[in-house]
Write a structure and sequence with these properties.
- This protein is α+β, with helices and mostly antiparallel strands.
- Helix content is 19%, strand content 34%.
- Strands 1, 2, 3, 4, 7, 10, 11, 12 and 13 form a nine-stranded mixed β-sheet that branches. Strands 14-15-16-17 form a four-stranded mixed β-sheet, covered by helices on one side. A two-stranded antiparallel sheet has the order 5-6.
- A hairpin with a 2-residue loop joins β15 and β16.
């Protein structure tokens, strides 16, 4: 019989290198850990680097909790030219325009902080009538993507690397396209621009300090030792409330049954999803309702 991989569970936070797609990283890490199941959180474009959380086994059930979290990026915005993809992987389609000063850039950045709208780039993974926008764009078809609301929590200029390249940092909500943000900043300054580089430094609870390079993972000789690099499944729930349930109630949750909230202090958690643990082990993600503690996702360890 064909070996389908080991049933390992946990988180592997890869510091993705430029030139690789997120799905490529999923495939390589599944092979390196000889795992049965894994998936990534928050797609990174091939030209981008940085934090790419990979969930293995039971951790895949928690992918939405990471993907829905806030993100932080550093980006290098080059002025005086633009590409069809708004990044360095694209084809230059226009050149010219003024090169803004450091003071001019600092003056416009506050205008992008808060809830704003943006139109995602044509070369993106958004689906239009069931097809990926980038597939349509590559065929030369017109791509109309509706604008969306996002939130920028912080945006700052770190330095001018060259006279025409601004190194910036942004903290933002999920769904933010930094390529579009860069182009919009350039437009507000009366010029054009594209991202020369992009690096994600935080994705949900995970940041660069949690990461490992694929090359370093490959250097670990034995599969069993590579599997030990995985962070516990519960790691991504550091900022989420939890309730400790009895062993009897843990069995009920695993069977998909709800619990009475009377036995637990849950009044301040009404309407929220929290982690239910037993003896320090994750049992389920549950929703706290007035009459019931309802299981949302159950874990099989």
């Amino acid at each position: 019989m064909k070996h389908k991989g080991d049933k390992v569970s946990g988180w592997l936070i890869i510091d993705k290198e430029a030139g690789m797609g997120s799905t490529q990283v999923v495939g390589k890490t599944r092979y390196l850990l000889q795992a049965a199941k894994n998936g990534h959180c928050g797609t990174l474009d091939p030209f981008a680097t940085g934090v790419l959380p990979i969930a293995f086994g039971e951790a895949t059930k928690l992918i939405p909790y990471v993907t829905d979290g806030d993100k932080e990026y550093e980006f290098w915005l080059k002025f005086g030219a633009t590409t069809d993809t708004l990044d360095c992987d694209g084809i230059v389609i226009a050149e010219g325009g003024n090169i803004p000063t450091k003071e001019e850039i600092k003056a416009v950045l506050p205008q992008f902080v808060g809830e704003i709208t943006q139109i995602p780039p044509a070369f993106s993974a958004i689906k239009i009538n069931g097809q990926r926008a980038y597939d349509l764009a590559r065929k030369g078809q017109e791509v109309e993507i509706p604008e969306r609301k996002i939130t920028i929590y912080g945006l700052e200029l770190l330095e001018m690397c060259e006279s025409d390249v601004a190194h910036c940092r942004v903290r933002c909500s999920k769904g933010t396209y930094v390529r579009t943000l860069g182009a919009d900043i350039a437009k507000k300054l009366g010029t054009i621009g594209y991202l020369k580089a992009l690096r994600r430094t935080k994705c949900g609870i995970f940041d660069v300090f949690d990461t490992i390079l694929l090359e370093n993972l490959k250097k670990i000789e034995y599969v069993e030792e590579r599997q030990k690099v995985l962070l516990p499944v519960i790691t991504c729930l550091r900022d989420i409330a939890d309730i400790a349930v009895t062993e009897a109630d843990a069995v009920k949750l695993k069977q998909g049954q709800g619990l009475s909230p009377k036995a637990y202090q849950t009044s301040d958690l009404l309407g929220k999803e929290v982690a239910a643990t037993c003896n320090g082990n994750l049992v389920a993600m549950v929703r706290i309702e007035e009459q019931k503690i309802a299981p949302v996702r159950v874990f099989n360890f």
